[in-house]
Design goal:
There is one protein chain. This protein is mainly alpha-helical and 133 residues long. Helix content is 27%, strand content 6%. The protein has 4 helices and 2 strands; from the N terminus they run βαβααα. It has a two-stranded parallel sheet with strand order 1-2. The longest helix is centred in the middle third of the chain and has 17 residues, at 40-56. Residues 122-133 have low confidence and may be disordered.
Length: 133
């Protein structure tokens, strides 16, 4: 089987029209956090460099975060129901990892953030109505 070309019209990066999605890089998931994810802290310096490059180029950077307040994924549901303080809205652990937000740092508004259920059931309409983030 031959190897497909690494850069063709369908797979080559289009950085001038791209956005960077940064997912779940929150304090609770870093080394020493209440729900540390192996390797997350190790990639922070390179991720911070990438985020800075996108901002310098005027490209969008979107942070997707978890907030556990009733709607919890299966992997951590038992721990959260038992009282583990994992990415609770307004907590220090829910904050985006240091070095990834623009200065001055913006704060996440947990009240306005959409839950997974809202996203799955009309999140676009909720956001358009001002209830989303």
């Amino acid at each position: 089987m031959s190897t497909p070309p690494t850069n063709d019209a369908f797979t080559e990066p289009h950085l001038q029209t791209s956005a960077l999605l940064v997912i779940d890089t929150q304090a609770d998931f870093l080394d020493g956090g209440t729900a540390a994810v192996a390797g997350t802290s190790a990639v922070l310096p390179e991720l911070a460099r990438l985020v800075a490059a996108y901002r310098a180029a005027g490209r969008p950077v979107v942070h997707v975060v978890r907030l556990y307040d009733g709607d919890v994924d299966l992997v951590r549901r038992a721990a959260v129901r038992a009282g583990a303080p994992v990415v609770r809205p307004g907590s220090a652990g829910a904050r985006v990892a240091p070095g990834l937000l623009p200065a001055p740092a913006v704060e996440l508004d947990g009240v306005r953030a959409m839950s997974a259920a809202e996203v799955a059931h009309g999140g676009a309409q909720a956001a358009a109505a001002g209830r989303g983030c």
